[in-house]
Amino acid sequence: MAPGTLVRRVDGTHRILAPGQLRADDRIIPGEQVHCRATTHDSGLYSFELTDEPTGTTVFRRGDPADDERAASEALAALYQSFQPTGMPDADR
Q1: Whole-angstrom Cα distance, residue 19 to residue 71?
Q2: Would you say residue 27 lies in a domain?
């Protein structure tokens, strides 16, 4: 399965779309892996600093985490409902 892009449609709904399904008025919800330098502390916690240099370590950066969570929840539900099983009889019969 090709990776999808999380978008907000002009009607306010959220979907995960393949590149060929994107519309000009879709707003892409940002999210990307970015390079960082990570430091582990004695407490077991860690901190990181973003960098443009390849480091072998990345973190996922997104805009508004709460907005992203709401969008992803709605979009994943729609994606799962779109799956069509093959080789199985229809449940309506």
Answers
A1: 18
A2: yes
Looking at 1-93, which runs of residues are DSSP E strands? 5-8, 14-17, 27-28, 31-40, 46-50, 58-62
Residue at 92 is within a domain: no
Pairing of strands 5-8, 14-17: antiparallel
CA-CA distance, 11 to 13, in Å (whole number)? 6
**Residue 92 in this model has a pLDDT that exceeds 60:** no
**Residues 24/9, Cβ–Cβ less than 8 Å:** no
> What is the number of structural domains in the chain?
1
Q: Mean of the per-residue pLDDT values for the chain?
A: 89
Structural tokens at position 79: 């994606």
11-56, pLDDT tens digit by residue? 999 999 998 999 999 999 988 899 999 999 999 999 999 999 999 9
Q: What is the pTM of this model?
A: 0.66
